[in-house]
Amino acid sequence: MWRHLTRLFECGTRGLARFFRTSDGTTAIEFAILAPPFLATLIAILEVTIFLFAQQVLQNAATEAGRLFMTGQAQNSDTTQTQFQSDVCPMISALFTCSALMVNVQTYSNFSGANASEPTLTFNSQGQVTNSWSYTPGSPGDVMVVQLIYQWPIVSGPLGYVLSSLGNGYTEMMGVSAFRVEPY
To answer: pLDDT tens digits, residue range 16-49?
Structure first.
């Protein structure tokens, strides 16, 4: 009986000594230390990449929408703001929710008076945008600014927001086109 206990104790101490000598768990510990910053960086890269791709799609849509005004197509068909928004929708429907798109069309007499800056969004208590957007299609010779504004959802990774936040889990994205309306 004592011999059996002695042998069990010797096996236990040999196993414990082998446990302290081994380095098999080092990889798991190193992975546990390096994985969170790696994943945070990967999430940030993916989020910024998708954001920039979507931003380019929105900018291309603003340029195409501007061409409708520049050539007089939007003015000749007596397009309303809602109809114009539905005309722009097929250009962006792959990435954006059309009902969340905000369209701001302004007319100016010259380029020096034109305002193409990013509008400040105002929100009500439910978090909905309460801005009233302008829709004034110009006539030949007028300077126009077409802005397509969208609230893009952002992901908060382990290191926080990569993109600026509006405070409601979204960031503002805008495509803008400024041009002089051609004679039509």
So the answer is: 666 666 667 777 888 889 998 898 888 888 888 9
* Residue matched to tokens 């520049």: 70
CA dihedral 148, 151, 155, 160 (to 10 degrees): 100
Are 184 and 76 in contact by the 8 Å Cβ rule? The answer is: yes
Residue with tokens 């068909």, as numbered in its chain: 77
Pairing state between β 102-108 and 143-153: antiparallel
User: Residue 46 falls within a domain, yes or no?
Assistant: yes
Q: Is 91 within 8 Å of 64 (Cβ atoms)?
A: yes
Number of structural domains the chain divides into: 1
Question: Is residue 13 one of the residues assigned to a domain?
Answer: no
Distance CA 61, CA 96 (A): 11
The one-letter code for the residue type at 13 is T
Name the residue with tokens 């039509």: 184
